[in-house]
């Protein structure tokens, strides 16, 4: 698993802007008002030869009694306790505040490495250093001056973070999972949706403690199942996390547990509650599976509680499809872990998806498909020139990854990428995430160089200089 960097600080100091800068894309919502970020937000960043996961958190307001702000603070505390390095963001223009000092006291108790970033300093270097100097009084060590909005000082900050990360572990950045013949299933979902009950039903024994009280499962637990001569490792994840600082507080989100387990799994089994419509957290976990490139099967548990009303059943199905349309390729199973209804179907589909997850397509068939795609839906015009797709090859599995050689790799429209992805799914019957890589033909620089003498002769003849 990649190391974790948690971004914390009081509201409206530029945490989300810095988060976007570190991951080099606009993933977090940024507004010039406090409190836009409430939940933890995760994304991977790569600088130099090292990758790490960045956690964006809501504004940290120590001691505030407002219920929403209290929950936001608890989310930030969880991020601090789970991470390897803390990035403490302050407002360099506003100077050191009592709230900054209160946050610093809490960070010192964590015992984690801390980097202080004095943000919003885009003035000359000497002035920046003068304005950031007072933050040394926090007693957290190094203070870096930067301005996240234009990106000033962000590369230097990234280098400092890299120095603070724990030593790199073997296989830390590997995109492909080791293939030891076993199939790993991550059972993920909100608290009290029946994850442990599902595992017990699959194992046909009470291997895990299950209860109607949310939070029975504390840590990921592995169980081995032999199913139709296949070795399957089921990992039940915690629907909540209990921590020292919030020992009696039930945390609403299981994202961190899901990240840890999904990083070493082939298939994510997202369990949902049929008695509740799909909620934001369900969509967040499905999105995480897609981002991690893991095969996904959506399991609607407690389907027996819906009853026999066909209209109600159909309304639920339609609402589910709409809320999770971004993972429309993922199969959906309606089951009851308590009664055992259709629980084996979950494993059947998961095994099928695990095979697709490591599928390798024949190169000749891929290029016949590419020719067919271009004939039926010609590539668009990019920068005034037709986009030409020359060749396609599969370059990886887990998930299936395809490289397409073309003349404008940076200009392929998202709509055409979706078209290619859909055609690959349809042709090879794939219901797992796919990755596309677009690259230029080898030797382009040499071909351009060969053209230059010809152009120079032309210029001499026409008298141009």
| Integer tally of domains | 3
In the CATH hierarchy, what is the class of the largest domain? Answer: Alpha Beta
In the CATH hierarchy, the third-tier topology of the largest domain is known as Rossmann fold
Q: How would you state the average pLDDT, rounded?
A: 82
Broad shape: globular
- Write down the secondary-structure element order: EHEEHEHEHEHEHEEHEHEHEHHEEEEHEH
The end-to-end distance, rounded to whole angstroms, is 57 Å
CATH superfamily of the largest domain: P-loop containing nucleotide triphosphate hydrolases
- Helix percent band: 25-40%
Total number of beta strands:
17
Strand content: 15-25%
CATH architecture of the largest domain: 3-Layer(aba) Sandwich
Q: Output the radius of gyration.
A: 26 Å
The DSSP helix count reads 13
pLDDT < 50 runs, ≥5 residues: 28-39, 206-219, 239-254
Strand order of the largest sheet: 2-3-1-4-5-6
The helix/strand class is: alpha/beta
Major sheet size, sense and barrel closure: 6 strands, mixed
């Amino acid at each position: 698993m990649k190391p974790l960097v948690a971004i914390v600080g009081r509201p409206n100091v530029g945490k989300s802007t810095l988060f976007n800068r570190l991951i080099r894309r606009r993933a977090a919502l940024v507004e010039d008002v406090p409190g836009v970020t409430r939940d933890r937000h995760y994304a991977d960043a790569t600088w130099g030869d090292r990758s790490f996961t960045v956690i964006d958190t809501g504004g940290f307001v120590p001691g505030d009694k407002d219920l929403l702000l209290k929950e936001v603070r608890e989310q930030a505390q969880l991020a601090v306790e789970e991470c390897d390095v803390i990035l403490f963001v302050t407002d360099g223009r506003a100077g050191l505040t009592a709230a900054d000092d209160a946050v610093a006291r809490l960070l010192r108790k964590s015992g984690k490495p801390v980097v202080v970033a004095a943000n919003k300093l885009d003035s000359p270097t000497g002035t920046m250093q003068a304005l950031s100097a007072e933050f040394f009084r926090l007693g957290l060590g190094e203070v870096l001056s930067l301005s996240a909005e234009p990106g000033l000082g962000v590369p230097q900050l990234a280098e400092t973070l890299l120095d603070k990360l724990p030593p790199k572990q073997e296989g830390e950045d590997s995109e492909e999972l080791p293939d030891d013949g076993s199939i790993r299933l991550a059972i993920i979902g909100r608290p009290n949706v029946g994850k442990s009950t599902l595992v017990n039903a699959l194992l046909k024994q009470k291997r895990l403690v299950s209860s109607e009280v949310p939070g029975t499962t504390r840590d990921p637990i592995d169980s081995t199942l032999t199913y139709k001569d296949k070795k399957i490792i089921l990992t039940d994840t915690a629907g909540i996390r209990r921590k020292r600082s919030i020992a009696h507080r039930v945390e609403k989100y299981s994202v961190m547990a899901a990240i840890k387990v999904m990083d070493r799994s082939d298939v994510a089994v997202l369990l949902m509650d049929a008695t509740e419509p799909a909620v934001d957290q369900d969509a967040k976990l499905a999105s995480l599976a897609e981002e991690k490139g893991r095969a996904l099967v959506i399991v609607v548990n407690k389907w027996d509680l819906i009853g026999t009303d066909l209209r109600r059943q159909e309304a639920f199905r339609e609402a589910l499809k709409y809320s999770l349309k971004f993972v429309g390729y993922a199969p959906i199973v309606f089951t009851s872990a308590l009664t055992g209804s259709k629980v084996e179907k979950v494993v059947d589909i998961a095994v099928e998806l695990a095979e697709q997850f490591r599928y390798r397509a024949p190169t000749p068939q891929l290029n016949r498909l590419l020719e067919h795609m271009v004939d039926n839906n010609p590539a668009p015009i990019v920068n005034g020139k037709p986009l030409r797709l020359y060749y396609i090859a599969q370059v990886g599995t887990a998930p299936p990854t395809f490289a397409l050689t073309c003349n404008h790799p940076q200009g392929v429209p998202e709509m055409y990428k979706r078209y290619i992805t859909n055609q690959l799914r349809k042709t090879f019957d794939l219901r797992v995430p796919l990755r596309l890589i677009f690259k230029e033909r080898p030797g382009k620089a040499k071909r351009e160089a060969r053209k230059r003498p010809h152009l120079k002769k032309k210029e001499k003849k026409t008298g141009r200089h």
